[in-house]
Amino acid sequence: MTFRKKIAAQMYSVRKEFEADPEATLKELKRIGFTAIQVDGMRGHSVEKISQLVKKYDFEIAGMHIKHDRFMTDLDGIVEECYAFGCKTIYDKYIDDEEQHTEGYRRTKAKLIEAVAKLAPLGFRIGVHNPEYDYNNQIDGRKVLDYLTDPVNGYGVYSEPDTYWMTIAGENPLESFKKYSGRAPVVHLKDYRSGFELADIKQNLAEVGEGEVDIEGIVRWGEANKVEYYCVEQDYSRIGIFKSLEIGFNNLLEIGERIQRETSQ
């Protein structure tokens, strides 16, 4: 697969634009060069409408982000939505704040493993995305993300590591990614610039390839460890969200294509 096809736009980046005009948003992402997106909710639109637009603009689906409470109560509805998009890779977006405690983590893991047991035979992959507190918090002596992705009776939950939140938690993203070799088919790339408060995402979040995260090192790791999609995510932008995404796309494309050329020689 060409590296270009591995670059996906994480739709949380354009949540406001998508809510206001989903077709114009997808059209602009296509203009930038994206051929894949990661779905992050319908933002008030119907599944039927959005799935039709995705087909119209010929986007691949690099997994689907699903709200935590739906994994707890609406697994059948999640499956129906996935089939509408022709996607069988689904992620718990993040554990709700009220479930950020020991019993909540245990409930979450039990539900995710239950989903794996039910859906893996149908070809589904179930995973979990991490905010920074999944590294700062622990359960049974394990960081939360490690605990959630530890296999149970042969059933495993995939990781969807996020470079920005790892950095905020004080992790080295490249070293942390190595723990999930073969277990992270989709990764989130967000960049970071130092010199601001850790909580000041509007200042310390940089365009992908413009900050201090070792994006090239992560891509080299990813190409050796079966990463299928690199999701460019930009929670906030100081220069316009589409401009930020375009900078990130172009930087990532240059890095990825160069690495592919080197490894094919």
UniProtKB/TrEMBL annotation:
Report the domain of life of the source organism: Bacteria
The protein here is known as: TIM barrel protein
The chain positions of domain Xylose isomerase-like TIM barrel read 27-220
Q: Which Pfam families match?
A: AP_endonuc_2
Q: Which Gene3D superfamilies match?
A: Divalent-metal-dependent TIM barrel enzymes
